[in-house]
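Records of this kind hold a single protein each, on a pair of labelled lines. Below, a sample record shows both lines together.
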Amino acid sequence: MNNKDIMKDYVVVPLHKRIELTRQCCKLVNAEWPRSEVARLRSLNSSCDKFPTCLVLLDDTCVIGHCKISLVPNMCDSCFIESVVIDQKYRARGLGTILMRGAEEYVARRGILKVFLSTKGQEYFYKKLGYDFCEPVSLYGNTYGENDPAPSSSKLLKESKLIGPPPPPMPIMRNSGFPFSMTKTYMVKNL
């Protein structure tokens, strides 16, 4: 990070408070996870104070980051952060940390005590932010119990120690033709 970036003030704001930025946010999120513009805009326009809430990281009036926060059904005082993305031109500058800290502050002010997320390949990043491995959670009204098996990679990662430099980011694989998908790793942080 150069001195210009260090001195720059970035701000994390709810998208529904800056609706004029919705199309920029749509373009950013669709660059990472392509989806029809209509469907993406519908999802982004659902942002509200009562959740789900989309937060954007701004560089002046330019959307450079996004995350979506939803409440976890049947889990009091818990939320799930998803769709965390930083514009590729702005990566490796510590802005993901700024976005996540902003999201944590936002939910803490609303009485949320526990934050869940899932990731594919960014475990080291979230571990540095204080997240720990956990069993999967569902955003669809049920949670996994003790008798339900967690993905095998989750158990392996939970037992492993992160030593050495962080792994490189996972490549973006669109229409790759691979007959498999990597399992997600679930993580949690108590605020």
